[in-house]
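The instructor's notes for this session suggest beginning with a concrete chain rather than abstract definitions. Hand out the sequence below and ask the class to guess, before any prediction is shown, which regions might be ordered.
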Amino acid sequence: EVQLVESGGGLVQPGGSLRLSCAASGFPFSNYFMYWSRQTPGKGLEWVSTINSGGTVTYYRNSVKGRFTISRNNAKNTLYLQLNSLQTDDTAMYYCVTSRREYFNDYDPQLRGQGTQVTVSS
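After discussion, reveal the predicted structure:
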């Protein structure tokens, strides 16, 4: 059974930083593209970032480029998202998402964990 367990969220002031983690199990993590997505009541679910199976290629939505960094440790079956220079618009529930198919970049937002809440407020 695929399990994705996010952690690391919290309350932070604008300009602050957080590091999110996602512990993965139940599938060959190192063979899968992984993603972070986020959801707010007003904007719905949106894709944030992608990383390939080897961790050598990454993609970001424009609004987080230069501020967020996705990474992974395949030996620990763990995905990360470093969030810097946080803004109030970054407030959301953040989800770890796995690709629908092994070896392919096949984003399916339904294949996500339970999420971790990030709140940016002064």
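Then share the key points. The two ends are 40 Å apart (CA to CA). The first strand starts at residue 3 and ends at 7.
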